[in-house]
Amino acid sequence: MVAHKKHDGKMTSKIARLAAVHGKKLVLVSLAGMIWIQPFSVLESFTGTTSTAYAADNQTVQLSSEMITSGAKLVKYQYTTTRSGKSVKVLADVVEVDLSNPYVQLDVMTGKNGQVTTRQSVEGMAQETGAVAGINGDFFATSGQGVAMGPAVSRGVLVTSPAQLNGMFAFAVKSDNTPMIDQFSFSGSVITEDGSVFPLTGINQESYRTEPDNGYSHVNNMFIYTSDWKSEERPKASGTTPTEVLVQGGVIQQISHKSAIPGTVPADGYILRAHGLAADFIASHMQIGQRVDTNYRLVSQSSGMEYNPSDLKMVIGGHTLLVDQGAASSFTRSTTSISGSSAVARTAVGYSKDGTKVYLITAEKNSASSGLTLAELQKFMTSIGVWKGMNLDGGGSTTMVTRPLAENTAQLTFTTSNGSAGQRAVVNGLGVYSTAPAGTLQGLKVSGSKTLLIGQTVPYTLKGYDNYYNPIDTSGIQATWSASNSNVSWTGDGFKGVKAGTAKITAASGSATSSMDVTVLGGTDMDTLTPVTTYAPLEAGTSVSVPVTAKLKSGSTVNIPDESLKWTFSGMKAAVQNGVLTIQSINNGAKVAYATPSYDGFSGTPIVFSVSAEQVWETFENISYPVSFTGLPAEATGKVSVVQGTGEREKSKVLQLDYDLTLGTGNKFAYAQLNGTTGRTIPEGATSMSVDVLGDASLNWLRAEFEDADGKAVYADLIRPLDFTGWRTLTADLTASALKHPVKLKRLYVVNLEDGQDERALAGSISFDNIRFTAPVTGGDTGLPSATAVMVAGSKTMTVDGKKVTMDAVPLIKDGVTYVPIRYVVDAFGGQATWTAASKKITVTRGLTVLELTVGKKEYLLNGAAKQGTVTPLITNGRTLVPLRMVSEQLGITVNWEQKTKSITLQS
Q: Where is each Copper amine oxidase-like N-terminal domain found (predicted)?
């Protein structure tokens, strides 16, 4: 929240008076909901151009500011712009780094383990390298090997050279700790023992087309590859036949003419990779045992100055220049390929006029923010004090991580534009690192979840940070915990949610206190409440895992603990304990039963329990689809075929899987693919699978792989280890696999793990026969009545098998859609309809079908799976009506419409 200017003036005067009283400068520090007054020397100052709460045009508002570490802070902004005549607010996050502070530094984070040709999320790179903050970095070809297009220098070592592309800028910090944004080229040479010299074109670069000549990067050129390059292909798909030279200790160890040297680059050496004229030079001037030397540097395109990599602390490449001398600059290359005129997530870096402050900038694109165009990004950057700045990779790559006060690792600062898909794996990033020594305790912070559920106990801890804003050990600090009201209660191990609402929890240690606002979620916060298990067999003694997930109205999802749920049962007696439901007895004559979870009065999707039967799904006697073999890694070989069985199965056909996993490394897999790569649909609501297996006593594992309605792969172990020969029936329980139907069985396969590989057979043969699924019975077996019912639009009278029934609401036609009171339909055809007023939700159960509709929402749930409708239920004259055709057909009831009489005939 931004205070009014008059209020700011009064606060400033008050602080000045306090300073005069104590004879020193003071600063206000916000600490977990408390306001502390601390000496100014404890809070690190920032020099250089300061950010203002408002830009001159009143478009940029600072929302918050929090220290990350000494010399770095996170500042959150709201930027307002106008698009198509409408005001649009965008969220931007900026990490400000003070280069004059001796305890903070910037560096490049590269892929996994600091190696080129690998990719990792920004959060992963930050945690791997110990960064306290970071953003994604350079552009890269998403279909390539994973190499930055621009230069990268980390701790004075050149990791990648800049590609020969026009208008690409890079950000650097020189050895004197001053920042620089410039275009760089690469200059290097190889000097042989006879004094001959050949130019180097680059270091650790993949193949690309050069600009402006559109040439092939590796033709007639020589590149150097170091151990920072992980891939064995140097590079992939270059279109040239290489000659390679391995150099260790400055001496040529190996020369491979017109072929690559196998393996990766050794840590104590490098490989020269040459083609054409460069390869001819090697043939003429290099021999094994001779000495060879290389030198290379980066050259400024603006000044011509040469930079030895060791004179640079770090360099990271980017795209177009955005800001120069405090104003928006012309774009230095086309921005079409990066959607320059579209509002997307953006990443940029820049520095202040005096060169002491660096800005790591991201613009959010998510449910709370619409992203920025490049022109808008330029205006935002100048509004916060950027003197010179450039664009970094954006869109789905845009990511920022920051370490909250008192925490040990950096975490996502905002939701990326990828949403539920999470963070994109990128080739490098720009990290912020603390070099401060261990400090003294400065502040405390309550740490733990900001949301609780009723009945749930959540642990909270008291964490601390030192005078450098780095986490400090607080294990010896004893605290007393309290809550502001009865919405939560302290149990000795944590706070327990008692009733919906908010509360302030406080930890006190001596005279120091720290607080946190927490929210106890109520039923009104729920949007859906869905058990992972959809179907289960109706049989006394059956036990099934029943985890429940809630989708909140805020859009997030939470797993509901068992202690927060209540269950109601229909058609059976059952109990739930520790997340497991056990059927105690079945009501007389019941063929279908339901278990419905609820939370604080909000009812969830019922689990359907049905009389089940084992169904033979595949005997392999007359299959009409293809079967095939696939192995991983690529060296794994084998064969899958339908053959005549032997021995006790000599009169049957079986699916035989032969495998040979002797080659390749790591975990190995031999797959029997069913129906190509698509698989085959299994029975609806299947709760278990059985298959007859001819074992080979290989001690490998045997698994089945399914694909559910969301495209998610689900794995079921058949046996681990496979320790028998001869035929045996194996069974896999599917009730806890979170399968969303329709589900396909894609493949059966052998798993040979690297761990213990010497104990397992690497080659063998197994066979499968008689795949069966236990699934709910359907149709008349569920005990549902058959009937014929007739309704007439506008009439409160309906007939069911010729008998008149009076309804309390009339069917109506609106926009060509017929709406009816659903209760009378399920009364006639079997089932139940319940209405939840708080959420305006109708839940209809009939046989094996559970249908949930919400007034005003086109999305509905069918047996727990989200579906999209074209119309919504509506309320008229105090009664809720549902779209007849959509609902009836989902329930297995046919609908016929007679235009002349406006009558609706329902049959099942």
A: 799-905
CB 108 within 8 A of CB 426: no
Per the rule left: phi > 0, alpha: psi between -120 and 50, beta: everything else, 865 is beta
First to last CA, the chain: 61
What's the rounded mean pLDDT across residues 827-856?
87
Query: Exposed/middle/buried for 486, CB within 10 Å: 0-12, 13-18, 19+?
Result: exposed
Which amino acid is located at 574 in the chain?
A
195: its two tokens: 């004094």
What are the two backbone dihedrals, phi and then psi, of residue 813, each rounded to the nearest 5 degrees?
-115, 125
**Cα Rg of the chain (Å, integer):** 34
Strands 222-226 and 202-203: parallel
Contacts of 397 (CB under 8 A, 6+ apart): 136, 347, 424, 426
C-alpha distances in Å from residue 177, one per residue of 256, 355, 356, 386, 555: 43, 9, 8, 17, 44
pTM over 0.85? The answer is no
Residue with tokens 């989708």: 551
Which residues are 59's β-sheet partners?
Answer: none
In which residue are the tokens 């399968």 written? 739
Tens digits of residue pLDDT in 709-739? 888 899 999 999 999 999 999 999 887 676 7
Beta bridge partners of 180: 172
Token output for 843: 């839940």
Instruction: Look at 223-232, 742-751, 808-817 and tell me which has the smallest mean pLDDT.
Output: 808-817
pLDDT per position as a tens digit, 230-258: 999 999 988 889 999 999 999 999 999 99
Q: Are 701 and 753 in contact (CB under 8 A)?
A: yes
Dig out the tokens for 652 from the structure: 């049957």
Pairwise CA distance, residues 838 & 622, whole Å: 54
Measured over the CA atoms of residue 167, residue 170, residue 171 and residue 172, the dihedral's sign is: negative
| Banded pLDDT at 187 (limits 50, 70, 90) | very high
DSSP 343: -
Tokens of 825: 């339909």
Q: Which residues, in sequence order, are CB contacts of 336 under 8 Å at separation 6+?
A: none
What is the pLDDT, as a whole number, of residue 501? 96
Q: Is 30 exposed, middle or buried (0-12, 13-18, 19+ CB in 10 A)?
A: exposed
Cβ atoms of 495 and 483 closer than 8 Å: yes
pLDDT of residue 58: 53
pLDDT of residue 54 exceeding 50, the answer is no
Neighbours of 588 (CB within 10 A): 5
Residue 101's DSSP bridge partners are none
Whether 56 has a pLDDT exceeding 80, the answer reads no
88 in Cβ contact with 82 (< 8 Å)? yes
Examine residue 633 and say whether the peptide bond preceding it is cis (omega within 30 degrees of 0). Answer: yes
Residue 298 to residue 310: CA distance in whole angstroms: 11
For range 589-601, the mean pLDDT:
91
Instruction: Inform me whether the pLDDT recorded for 571 exceeds 70.
Output: yes
Query: How far apart are alpha carbons 813 and 815 in whole angstroms?
Result: 7
Closest to 391 in 3D by CA, of 428, 362, 427? 362
Instruction: Give, as one character, the DSSP assignment of residue 162.
Output: P
Q: Which of 366, 275, 387, 259 is nearest to 323 (CA)?
A: 387
CB within 8 Å of 173: residues ≥ 6 apart: 99, 105, 106, 179, 180, 312, 313, 314, 315, 358
- β-strands 566-570, 592-599: how paired? antiparallel
